Amino acid sequence: MAWDATQMKDWQIAEAAEAAGNLPSTEKYQEILGLQKDEIIPYGKTPKVDFLKVIDRLKDKPDGNYIEVTAITPTPLGEGKSTTSIGIMEGLGKRGVNVGGALRQPSGGPTMNVKGTAAGGGNALLIPMTEFSLGLTGDINDIMNAHNLGMVAMNARMQHEANYTDAELAKRNLKRLDIDPKNIEMGWVIDFAAQGLRNIIMGLGGKKDGFMMHSKFGIAVGSELMAILAVAKDLADMRERFKHIVVGYNRQGEPVTTGDLEVDGAMTAWMRNTINPTLCSTVEGQPCFVHAGPFANIAIGQSSIIADRIGLKCFDYHVTESGFAADIGFEKFWNVKCRLSGLKPNVSILVATVRALKMHGGGPTVVPGRPLPDEYTKENLGLLEKGCENMVHLINMIKKSGIKPVVCINAFYTDTAAEHALVKRIAEQAGARAAVSEHWAKGGDGALDLADAVMDACKEKVDFKYLYPLEMPLRQRVELIAKEVYGADGVDWAPLAQEKAQKFESDPKYADYCTMMVKSHLSLSHEPTWKGVPKGWRLPIRDILVYGGAKFLCPMAGAISLMPGTSSDPAYRRIDVDVNTGKVSGLF
C-alpha cells in the first residue's frame, strides 16, 4: 500500500510501514537474498552481511544488471537521488524482478541540519528510518574513532619528541620522526556540521598537555578512512591501505604515515566490523545494503565496492547511488570506482526535477528553510526550457562513458503535465530515454514507467570507456575533467598546487593514484552561484590533498571547506523522543 505522502511526515510513513510488517526479519532477509545462516550477522533491526563468506561462495555466479543513480546539478534542497534509488527498486519490484540496491549511510551533519537524512522520502523510503538516520550499526562512529586515534598518535609522538632526547626516545623503543608542525596533512573529524572547529589551536597548557599546534576538524564522512571503506576489496586490503595514510611531513619534506606511528593496526581493529554491509529495506520490502558515506564534493561519495559486488551476485538488478550531481558523483563512479572495482554499469539514471531546472533557467535563489518562490510552484515553461541546458550538458557527459542514460523526471505535486512533457521531449532529443516517476507519492506503482525504461536500457550493449588512461599525468587529467565534464575553458593552478602537482607527476609512487576532485556540488563550476551551464570560465585549483591509503590525489577547486556549517534553523530543533515509547519523531 502507499501512504498519503502529502499528509504524513516521512518518519510517520516509516513507522506505519514497520507496523504493517514491511520490514523483513533477519530470517526473511536470508530467504530473499539466498544467504546461508552463517552469512548474516544479527544486529537488531539491521543485520549485517558477512561479505567474505558471501562473495567466496558466489564468486562464480554471473553478475546481475548494474544500475547507477546520479542527478542534474541540484538546488541546496537536493533533487531526490536517494528517493529515486529507492523508487526504482520499488518499481522494479512491482514488475516482479529480483531487485535490491546499495545506498550510502547518512551523516549526522545533514541529518541534524537542513538537508535531512538520506532515507529517501514519501513512499520511496528506507526503513527502519530511525536506526538508518541515527548511527545504524556504528560504521561512522568506528571511522571517527579510528581516524582520531591516528591524530592522537601523531600529537602524542610530537609531544614526546619535543620533551625527550634521542637517547630517551630509544629507551622507549621510539625513533625520532621529526614531524613538521607547519606541514600537517591530517586533522580531526566529527560527524556534525561544526564550522567552529574548522580551525583550532590545540595543546594549550604545559608540556604535559600535548604538542601545541594549529589543527582542524573535518566532517567524519570526508575522512580518508571512509574513502578506504568505499574502495577496499576486503579486510586485508583495508589493513594494507591503513598503513599508508599520510598524517603529515617531516622537516625534510618526506611523508609521515600511520604506519610510521605504528597505529595502523589499532585503527584497523576499530574498523574491523565496518567491512560488512548493513541491511535495510524499502517500505515495500526490497532489500538494500547500506555501506560507505556521502559528500561527493569532498569525498568519493559512493556506496561501497563491497556492497555492489554482493548486490550484483544476489540481485538480477542492482541499484547503486552516487553522491550529488553527475559532474561529481557520476564522474567519480565512472573514472575511479569502476576502474578500481572492474565493474561496468548497464545504465545510469539521471534524476531531474522541474524545480532545479527552473533554478538553472534563472529562477530565484532557493534558500533552505524558506518557502519556495512562486516560480517553482507555478507553470513557467520558458524558465524550465532555459534550465534544461544543465540536464542536456550532463546527458552528453554521461554518454562519453558509452552509456545511454535514462532521465528520471522526479515528479513533485506542484509540477504540471506540460512541464513534464517539455523536459521529456528535450531529454529524448539529447539522446536519452526519459520517464516521469511518481515514486514519492505512489511508491513502486508510481515508478513503473521508469522501471520499464531502465529494463529496456539494460538490454542495450554498453561500450564502457574511461575519460582518461591512468597513465595520463595529473594536470592533464584535471584539465580534461574541467573541460569535458564541467565545461571550463581550462585550469588555473595556484603556486602551491602547481608545486605539488609537479612533485606528484615526477614521483613514480603516485603514478597509479586516482584523481578525486574536490568541488562545489551546487554548480558545474567551482562557484556555487553560477547556475545552468556557465560559459567563459576557468577552474582554479588552490591545493592538492594526499590520501596515501586510499591512493587518491585530491585537487581542491575554489574555496570549498571540508567541514560544512550548521544553519540558523537546523533540523535538530524539531527532532525529539517519546519518553513513554522511545520512538523518535521529526526526522525527515
UniProtKB/TrEMBL annotation:
Reaction(s) the record says it catalyses: (6S)-5,6,7,8-tetrahydrofolate + formate + ATP = (6R)-10-formyltetrahydrofolate + ADP + phosphate
Keywords annotated in UniProt: ATP-binding, Ligase, Nucleotide-binding, One-carbon metabolism
GO molecular function: ATP binding; formate-tetrahydrofolate ligase activity
Enzyme class: ligase
Annotated pathway: One-carbon metabolism; tetrahydrofolate interconversion
Binding-site list for ATP: T75, P76, L77, G78, E79, G80, K81, S82
Pfam families (UniProt xref): FTHFS (PF01268)
GO biological process: tetrahydrofolate interconversion
EC number(s) given by UniProt: 6.3.4.3
HAMAP family, A to Z: FTHFS
NCBIfam families on file: PRK13507.1
Family statement: Belongs to the formate--tetrahydrofolate ligase family.
Protein name, entry field: Formate--tetrahydrofolate ligase
Source organism of this protein record: uncultured Sporomusa sp
